[in-house]
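ARCHIVE CARD
SHELF: 3
SLOT: left
DATA:
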Amino acid sequence: MAPSYPHRLIFVRHGQTAYNAENRLQGQRDVPLNGKGREQAGAVGRFLRDHWGAELVRLDTVGAFWASPLGRTRQTMELARVAMGLPPQPYRVDARLEELSFGDWEGLNWDEVEARDPEGIKARQASKWGFAPPHGESYADLVERVKPWLAERDGDAFVVAHGGVARAFMAILAGVAPSIAAEAEIWQGRALIFDKGAFSWVG
């Protein structure tokens, strides 16, 4: 899909939460933004207003703002929109944009995961893209979840979602090798632009 995908996506990962600060796996748990996360949401909104303002107004006019339904993404979207000079709503949500599920590992930090499931950690290290925690999803599963959402798009879009979704987009839209996408740093407080089969960070 990467070379021929005809639309541009402006992607923002949600701001920091307490789980992020504590290096805990939050997955699909509904953890709110902390103070730093709210600041990050406003900062990325102001940057995009200053550099992409006309484009954002155009996307808002055609209803092309999308978010995961989890609270931290909706908070980020609304704070960013206000910082862009837009009203906090409207925008659309889609469950296919939710974070990767970490299943039984959600709520744990990596030390706790290793203590409880050392064999799972070894399996994940051997194949990070294809590994699914108990009752969870793999990045490969997530790719299949978001592909139909992408296929439905008929124009450019602004998306607030999660680190796992960003990695899936890297693989689908920019042709990044799964082994590289799985290890990619996904920043908070910056925007990721997917366009013409490539991606770049701004902000």
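SLOT: right
DATA:
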Amino acid sequence: MIRLNIKKELLIVMLVVLATALTACSGREDDLNRYIAEVKARPATPIPPIPPVRTYTPYVYEGLSGRDPFRRSTSEGSDQVAQSGPAKGPRPDLQRPREYLERFELDTLSMVGTFSKESSEWALIRDPDGVVHRVAVGNYIGKNHGKVNGISNDEVQLSEFIADGIGGWLVREASVALGGS
């Protein structure tokens, strides 16, 4: 009989522990239900509208009258086009030896400063490799036969020759700004 009483007492203790555990869980559930109700009561944030779809505008290829779509830039192959064209209008001197900074596009060069000695003035130009070069008025820089026309504290002004695609050349003013690329 003692064994039976121990089993009953053990069963009663287990039931009390189980009931206590269940009542402890029910309190957390009430908190959860209150939180869910609070979140549902908040006003909904509006969803941003769908952006308008841009209509596709097809590109019409103009044949030989337009730019060659297989060239990366206007300077690539410009010497060959211009040599075969008529000799009227402004032209670069294609026979002169090319200077070192003419192997770089202008947007890859940056001006880092100026200096002068007596009546001479120079600009300091950094190439893409990080090497600084001295440039004076009359020097050439850039792939488009850019001749330096003036040097100020803020920029180097130059004139470039751009092939027009039909055998001639156009003169374009350009500059390399201080601290810019």
